[in-house]
Amino acid sequence: MNGLEDLRARLAALDQRQLRRTRRIVEGAWTPAARLADLDMPRGAGREVLAFCSNDYLGLASHPAVVEALAAGARRCGAGSGASPLISGHNAAHHDLEARFAATQSAHIPAARALHFGTGYLANLAVISALADRETEVFSEELNHASLIDGIRLAYARRRVYPHADADALDAMLRASTARRRVIVTDAVFSMDGDLAPLSGLLALAERHDAWLVIDDAHGFGVLGPGGRGSLAHFGLHSDRIVYMATLGKAMGVGGALVCAHDDVIEWLIQRARPYIYSTAAPPALAAAVAAAFDIALGAEGEALRAALRAHVARLRAAFGAATAGYTVGAAAPPGGGWRLLSSPTPIQPIVVGGNEAALALAAALLDRGIWVPAIRPPTVPEGTARLRVTLSAAHTAEQVERLATVLQDLAARPG
Fold first, then answer.
1. What whole-number distance in Å separates Cα of residue 408 and Cα of residue 82?
2. What DSSP letter does each residue of 296-353 carry, written as one string?
3. Residue 358 sits in a domain of what CATH number?
4. Do 33 and 173 sit in the same domain of this protein?
5. Phi and psi of 177, rounded to 5°?
6. Under 8 Å between Cβ of 338 and 354
7. Kind and range of the H or E element at 24?
8. Nearest to 382 by CA among 143, 149, 186
């Protein structure tokens, strides 16, 4: 069997297990009224669907002020950065955004300083591979994002996985550790479950066991905490052991990521984080757009958007609670099967279906009715827990959320 035959066989195996992923073509700007096209369609001929599959939690991806800031940034700074940050690519727009982000976290991290990255994936690779090495033990949450797992691999560190949200198990693992360096790594909001890490308890363990606490707040910054400042503000944390990462392509609606930590930590990342040193800097126009998103998300308008988002979450969960016996809210799978809405206070509202075929069938049934919700399958989630990952946005209307709930109730009431 040659290389192509081997790949074809492996692709066929994915098909047999219903695990092949496919891309959908979205035409135009991102909004909840998304326009989907097929490969053979002429551009502009796509159909409109109601989308519940974006991390654009505050609806800023198409906000006029953010779009205009991006265009103005491109006119002022050009389309690209020209080089890596340590050669010549570090633009004033990047620098100003870093300073502004550090200010948002200064109540939680002493001597706070920030560093800008092109993506959250790059940021996590950079942080962990720079802080950890072969003499380090990294204690990784069971449900951590792939970028955190890959960062540990890149560091060649020893990895210890602790059970989901189990601080007691982590404490026992830390007490048994004899490593020269220790790093605790966790998502703040878990992207496929929507629940929160017990960050207060994790920080207490980091203090007790002389460990760094690396927090990926991709889904919390802009959504959680006073003023939308994120999970550190939500839990009221304060420590120089915290290394905090927030992505800019979710609630901020643009792209990129920022890492905030003590000044000495950021200086170490600048000197030793290979994904930072050897990557071309992100276009400065993106930083200009993020600055506009900060104006909105962290100000009075952001408070109104977060209130709308919380209302949508409550509306959807109430609809599930009043629905048929095919639903179970925040509990084990119901007797005889059915769907399970996981306990989540965040815009991520997962409906666990179980098998891959059932999840794909439900997603297809929704799309037939003009509603786009993706089916999430292994290895992204554990075997037997395939789900629909509903994500809500402040850009949705109450009527759109109610439409989703009504269609789900109708589908739940239909056998098979």
1. 49
2. HHTSHHHHHHHHHHHHHHHHHHHHHHTS-TTEEESSSPPTT--EEE---SSSEEEEEE
3. 3.90.1150.10
4. no
5. -75, 140
6. no
7. none
8. 143
Quick one: 267 and 311 in the same domain? Answer: no
Can you give the pTM of this predicted structure? 0.93
Encoded tokens for 257: 């990521």
What secondary structure does DSSP assign to 247-277, as a single string?
A: ESSSTTSS--EEEEEEHHHHHHHHHH-HHHH
Q: What is the pLDDT of residue 410?
A: 87
Answer yes or no: do 241 and 139 share one domain.
Answer: yes
Look at the block and give the residue holding tokens 């003499």: 135
Could you give the number of structural domains in the chain? 2
Output the domain CATH number for residue 234: 3.40.640.10
Whether 41 maps to a domain, the answer reads yes
d(CA 408, CA 412): 6
Q: Which amino acid is at 274?
A: R
Q: How far is CA 342 from the centre of its chain?
A: 17
Q: Which amino acid is at 279?
A: S
Cβ-based neighbours of 278, under 8 Å, separated by 6 or more: 84
Rounded Cα–Cα distance for residues 163 and 141 (Å): 6
Is residue 259 a contact partner of residue 244, using CB atoms and an 8 Å limit? yes
Q: What confidence tens digit (pLDDT) does each residue in 107-149 have?
A: 999 999 999 999 999 999 999 999 999 999 999 999 999 999 9
Local confidence pLDDT in tens for the 416 residues of the chain: 899 999 999 999 999 999 999 898 899 999 999 999 877 767 776 889 999 999 999 999 999 999 999 999 999 999 999 999 999 999 999 999 999 999 999 999 999 999 999 999 999 999 999 999 999 999 999 999 999 999 999 999 999 999 999 999 999 999 999 999 999 999 999 999 999 999 999 999 999 999 999 999 999 999 999 999 999 999 999 999 999 999 999 999 999 999 999 999 999 999 999 999 999 999 999 999 999 999 999 999 999 999 999 999 999 999 886 553 344 444 444 333 578 899 999 999 999 999 999 999 999 999 999 999 999 999 999 999 999 999 999 999 999 999 999 999 888 877 55
User: Are 308 and 349 members of one domain?
Assistant: yes
Phi, psi angles (nearest 5°) of residue 102: -60, -35
Name the token pair of 399.
Answer: 């009527």
Q: What is the DSSP letter of 164?
A: T
Separation of alpha carbons 125 and 113, rounded Å:
19
Residue whose pair of structure tokens reads 């066989």 in the numeric block: 9
